[in-house]
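Curious: can you check?
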Amino acid sequence: DNTNAECIVNIPIGNNIFYIKVIDANGNVTQKEENIIIDQPIPVIELSVVGNNIKITVTSEVELKEITYKWNDKNEKKENMTTYENRLSFEKQLEIPIGQNTLTIVATDVNGGKTEKVQEIKGVTKATTKIEMVGEYLHFNVTAKENIEKVEFEFNGQKYLMNTETFGDTKKVHYKVKLIEGKNYLTITTTTKSGGIETTSWEKEYTK
C-alpha cells in the first residue's frame, strides 16, 4: 500500500523546526513546516536534615556529569559522576557547621542541563544528658560541645529553670534532686547557645 507512509524521527532537545516534503506518483508536492519544542529535563536537587547533617539527594532522567557543593565562601568540592556506576542519582550527607550557613549545590548532566540550589541552613549543637540514681538522690549531668544556654526540667510535677545567670558560661551542668517513695519521673530539656534543643525523659520506682 503506497498511499500511506510512516516514519519515526528522533527529535533533539530544544526548539526545532521540522520540515516534511511529500511527492506523490503524479509529481504533486505537499510540504509542511512544524515548530516542535522538546523540553530538556534537568537534575532535581532535594535537601533533608538528618540529625546534625544535611542530606543531598540528586536525581536525573539524563546521566549526570558532575555535582559541586560548598559551604559559604569555602572552596567547592566536586563529584565526577562519570566515574560512578549509577549516574542517574546521587546521595551524600554533610555535617552542618555551627551557626548560620549558606550551602550551594550545582548538578550538571551530560547534555548540559544544570540545576543550582542555594539553601540557608543553621547548624546547631545538641547537648547530651545522663541520668543516674545514687542512693536517695537522682543525679543528672548535661554536657555539650558549646556553652549551655538553659536547662529546664520537671521533676514529679514541679518545674525548674536554670540558665546562664544560675551556672554562668559552661559546657557542663550537674544537678541532683531527692527521690520520693514510689514512682518518680523527670523530664529535662536543654538548649545550647546555637539553639540546639534536646529533651530526655526518665521514670522509675524508688523504694527506701
Q: What stands out?
A: The radius of gyration is 31 Å. The helical segments are 164-167. The chain has a mean pLDDT of 92. The CA atoms of residues 34 and 192 lie 64 Å apart.
